[in-house]
Amino acid sequence: MCWTSPEKKTHRVAALEAATYQRHPIHGENRTWAETNCYTDLLVEMLHGLGHEPCAVLPYTLAIDFEGDQWTFFKPPHTEVESLYGVDIQELALWRPLVEHVRDQVAAGRIVLVELDSFFLPDTAGTAYKIAHVKTAVGVNEIDVESRHLGYFHNNGYFEVSGDDFDELFHMNGLPHDRMLPPFCEIAKISEGAAIPRGPRLVEASLALLDRHLARAPRTNPFPRFRAQFERDLEALMAADIGAFHKYSFATLRQYGACFELAGTCLGWLGDNGVDGLGPARAALADISQTAKTFQFQLARSMSRKKALDLAPIDAMGAAWDRAMSELRGRRG
After folding, report:
1. 91/153 same-domain check
2. Is there a contact between 276 and 304 (Cβ–Cβ < 8 Å)?
3. Which of 50, 136, 171, 183 could form a disulfide with 115 if both were Cys (CB 3.0 to 4.6 A apart)?
4. Could you tell me the pTM of the whole model?
């Protein structure tokens, strides 16, 4: 899997090129939510780039809840990523310059998952690149320090960065100041000889995870609790600017909207692989996802115009959640 060029001192894990990379359908043009959250999107594309089917690990999305001031920041459990794909994710302690760790770990055949500054990532053009300093998780698959080149998984695809942006990402022109904390960093260790489930065995393993996370799902509907808090938050939101909308929406509407779309995708994948009876639950989850997207636009418009907002869509999403969970629990116990 790992490859190193002795001439250019390029290290890479998977043989990928940004210009020809085909993203996973989870990030296709027909999606309600083009992106979910940076960590989940990263793992989806990393697993896809390594030749795996990421839909199998998505049952965890069924267990998200309203946490009081936000919805669960959903991330694939590391133990399940390892059991399904033989990819062991471990934290990496940074005691040297970051670029040295990344170079050596990629040379050892590990993808490095690290928080970088979107201000220097060209794939964020129009949102953060050269606009705002926003940390985001990327998966470094290829690095050439001498050529100042990086190939990385991020959000909905696989990209490259080079030149001055490479230098800024890794502080090549000087050490970061003493008030700059090192980023959170992990490595994805890929087990070549692991007994990874394939075909029907992968479907069976995913179904076992579905049962596990269905048992972990909230016992009471989270949407009434969300509505009560949303009503309390609404007065402050109406007096805030669009920046507050983006932060609030990311932690609430986008978080559960994107998550339940992934849950529906998981059920669709299982259905396509011979698991019957998941259609009604999948349709209910799609209702939540699509309604959340529409409600997000309604909230933005209401804040902009300082007009009252109809909260009935939250009740509709709550009813859809009840339908989805009732269907799944009725079929899967």
Report:
1. yes
2. no
3. 183
4. 0.93
Token output for 173: 């022109």
Are 75 and 122 in a shared domain? yes
Contacts by residues 292-300 (CB-CB < 8 Å, ≥ 24 positions apart): 292/253, 292/254, 292/256, 292/257, 292/260, 292/317, 293/32, 293/33, 293/253, 293/257, 295/253, 296/249, 296/253, 296/254, 296/257, 299/237, 299/245, 299/249, 299/253, 300/242, 300/245, 300/249
Instruction: Report d(CA 277, CA 298) in Å as an integer.
Output: 34
Domain holding 252, by residue range, is 200-332
User: Quick one: which H or E segment has residue 134?
Assistant: none
Q: Of the candidates 143, 148, 141, which has an alpha carbon nearest to the alpha carbon of residue 173?
A: 148
Query: How many C-beta atoms lie closer than 10 Å to residue 304's C-beta?
Result: 11
Q: Are 40 and 75 in contact (CB under 8 A)?
A: yes
**Cβ contacts of 4 within 8 Å, gap of 6 or more:** 10, 11, 12, 107
User: pLDDT tens track of the chain, all 333 residues?
Assistant: 565 555 568 899 999 999 999 999 999 999 999 999 999 999 999 999 999 999 999 999 999 999 999 999 999 999 999 999 999 999 999 999 999 999 999 999 999 999 999 999 999 999 999 999 999 999 999 999 999 999 999 999 999 999 999 999 999 987 665 557 789 999 999 987 668 999 999 999 999 999 999 999 999 999 999 999 999 999 999 999 888 999 999 999 999 999 999 999 999 999 999 999 999 999 999 999 999 999 999 999 999 999 999 999 999 999 999 999 999 999 986
Identify the three-state secondary structure at position 28: coil
DSSP conformation class of 96: S
Domain boundary among 160, 190, 220: 190
Do 230 and 309 lie in a common domain?
Answer: yes
